[in-house]
Write a structure and sequence with these properties.
The chain has helices at 3-12, 24-44, 67-76, 84-103, 115-119. It is mainly alpha-helical and 133 residues long. The protein has one domain. Helix 3 runs antiparallel to helix 4. The longest helix has 21 residues, at 24-44. It comes from Chrysochloris asiatica. Residues 1-19 form the signal peptide. This is Cytokine-like protein 1-like. Keywords: Signal.
């Protein structure tokens, strides 16, 4: 095989999906985002499943120490028994709790201890601040 052909093959070879294995932090972050998306979808189906409105709020911030209690409360919620979407969501929440409390406990740094922030999250702004000189 000529060096030019080898170089061409190496350049056109598809890159690996992830150059490095996921870390505990990246797994917690991606799972919390996945849970947040599933919770929002569940809230959108509230009309078909009225019990959803009685589930605890599920705003997740993995840097807030109160998130562990929030995850426990959500899993222990007696509402929506035998609703498949809720059961799947509770399984994901249980998995995140286990990862945070067991496997990644030493890697996790809590920056906040504000339980109220998980109940009433600050609105996200998408506009730039008005800078006056």
């Amino acid at each position: 095989m000529t060096p030019w052909l080898l170089a061409l093959l190496l350049l056109t070879w598809p890159p690996a999906g992830q150059p490095a294995p996921p870390t505990c932090y990246s797994r917690m972050l991606s799972l919390s985002r996945e849970i947040a998306g599933a919770y929002q979808n569940l809230q959108a189906t509230e009309l078909s499943e009225p019990c959803v409105r009685y589930l605890p709020r599920l705003y997740l911030d993995i840097h807030n120490y109160c998130v562990l209690a929030k995850l426990r409360d959500f899993v222990a919620s007696p509402h929506c028994w035998k609703v498949v979407q809720v059961d799947v969501l509770k399984d994901k929440v249980r998995k995140l709790y286990t990862i945070m409390n067991s496997f990644c406990r030493q890697d996790l740094v809590f920056l906040l201890d504000d339980c109220n922030a998980l109940e009433y999250p600050a609105p996200v702004t998408t506009s730039l601040p008005d800078l006056q000189m």
